[in-house]
Amino acid sequence: MNMRSWLMCVAIMVPLLIAGCGKTPSSKKTVTIEELNRVLRLASISPGGVPQSIDGLTNFPAFKGRQFPVPPDGKKFIIDPASYQVIMVDNKDVPAR
Hints:
By secondary structure, this protein is an alpha+beta fold. It has 2 helices and 2 strands; from the N terminus they run ααββ. The chain has one domain (25-93).
């Protein structure tokens, strides 16, 4: 590779690398409902089974250092035992376990 080709390659790659290094998608900071549902599907076929609440997913390696979603006031996230999905319900509609 001659010097001109090398410089052209560097001139193209450096700005791309700099632009990409500083960006962190906001979805990486907060766990999404879709991610929780994927983990629940995996848990449903694992020996430990599905946890009783989404708090049981806090130790999952992919969620380390990330925040769980916060429901709006008067709402709560629960695991629907029939579908193995995280759903949002009114706080008063949460069945006692």
